[in-house]
Amino acid sequence: MSEIKINWKGHVKKYQNAMNELNLDFCVLTRVKSITYLTGAFVPWRSAIFLPKEGAGEPILYTVLLDVERCRAEGQLQTEGWGPMKGFYLEKKIQTAAKKAKVYNPKGSPPRIGVELGQDICISGGMLQYGEAELLKKVFPGCEFVDFNDKTERIQFIKEPEEITMLRKASEITDVGQKIVKKALAERPLGKIFTENEIAGIGTLAMRKAGSNWEWTFTGGEEIGSGYRAAYIMGGCTPATNKEVKEGESLLVDLHSEYGCYLGDLSHNYILGKCPPELKAFNDVYEQLCYTLIDNMYPGNTFDECYQAVRKVAEKEGFGNDLFFGLGHGIGCIGNESWPVVVPGKEWGPMVFEENMVEIAAVVFNNPKIGGLRLESPTLVTSKGAEILPKTSFEVDYV
């Protein structure tokens, strides 16, 4: 557990205030980011939180039976077990809890239930499944589902001071990982050839020693891409493989940490040995893009304006088609790894940077004939502009 004190009960209060706005009787929350945000524990199983309206009792976490004791000990909520067997069905347990809290009466009006609906780009997102929805409808006949997802996103969008402190710590850990990776690359014995998986292991071990609990991403833990694997068109996913890293090619090292349920995500780029002139010129443009992005992450600036400023640099240098259109994604507690996404267009473009949001500043800059680079760095938006939480520089390291 972290020594930094997060106000987990305050998180429950935020959710219940939002429930009041929607006139909900209770919520059944299944998203991983909601479960982490309200429990303060790592809950890896398919789980749900029963959250009654304010004044109607305490929330309950339902997780699989084999992990109840740990979640109860490490989390902040009352915890009970469920399983796919008679007497332990999830929907039945929620029905019992709703009756006990007096937010559901079979003889009264059907309840208004807040649920998290929609799609998530992450496989581990946890939106309510169709089958689960049908089972809830059976035990709460005539109930009305009210989508709570927008509330979930907005509640977790602006970070509390303690959350920012936790994210700083997670970023310090990824800095350690990059430092040790660079040291291993620089001190490699003559003739030593690293594989992507070896580099992933070096980074993971270093971060574990520094206090990280988990390599949280579902994309294979640490993402290590070299050569052609770093340069796929619009490629932003490089789970490590046994490919050998060659001199003179792009080497992307994307490390992930978790500290006290909060996440770190730091990409850095290396070149081993002599760098081809064409790749060096490409790398120089990438560095310009990174600094332009940071300069445009300030309160009130729209995502569209930010994107256009960065794209203008890429186009000026003749690489407009090599810049991925997304320039950032969310970060926070476990499960909070996508919203909001900094992209242009009518859906996301009008959204503005706000003070105390923490966003992964991201640049994906790939040309299959030259090389590929990626920036991912947690960035705090302040009244004075953007503050990069990790200390690792944007500049490519020539080792």
Helix content percent band:
25-40%
Please give the radius of gyration in angstroms: 23 Å
At the first level of CATH, what is the class of the largest domain?
Answer: Alpha Beta
The assigned structural class equals alpha/beta
> How many helix segments?
10
CATH architecture assignment name of the largest domain: Alpha-Beta Complex
Structural domain count: 2
End-to-end Cα distance: 37 Å
Q: Quick one: overall form? A: elongated
Strand-residue fraction? 15-25%
List keywords for this structure.
alpha/beta; 399 residues; Creatine Amidinohydrolase, Chain A, domain 1; Creatine Amidinohydrolase; six-stranded mixed β-sheet; four-stranded mixed β-sheet
Which helices and strands occur, and which strands form pairs?
Blueprint: H1 8-22, E1 26-29, H2 32-39, E2 48-52, E3 60-64, H3 68-74, E4 78-82, H4 90-100, E5 112-115, H5 130-139, E6 144-147, H6 149-157, H7 161-186, H8 196-209, E7 223-226, E8 250-259, E9 262-271, H9 277-295, H10 303-316, E10 328-330, E11 358-367, E12 371-382, E13 385-388, E14 397-398
Parallel strand pairs: 1-5, 3-4, 5-6, 9-14
Antiparallel strand pairs: 1-2, 2-3, 7-8, 8-9, 10-11, 11-12, 12-13
Helix pairs in contact: 7-8, 9-10
Question: How does this model look, in words?
Answer:
The chain has 399 residues and is α/β, with parallel strands linked by helices. It has helices at 8-22, 32-39, 68-74, 90-100, 130-139, 149-157, 161-186, 196-209, 277-295, 303-316, and strands spanning 26-29, 48-52, 60-64, 78-82, 112-115, 144-147, 223-226, 250-259, 262-271, 328-330, 358-367, 371-382, 385-388, 397-398. It folds into 2 domains: 8-156, Creatinase/prolidase N-terminal domain (Creatine Amidinohydrolase, Chain A, domain 1, 3-Layer(aba) Sandwich), CATH 3.40.350; 158-398, Creatine Amidinohydrolase, CATH 3.90.230. It is 33% helix and 21% strand. The strands form 3 sheets. It has a 6-stranded mixed beta sheet with strand order 4-3-2-1-5-6, with helices on both faces. Strands 7-8-9-14 form a 4-stranded mixed beta sheet. It has a 4-stranded antiparallel beta sheet with strand order 10-11-12-13. Strand 2 and strand 3 form a beta hairpin.
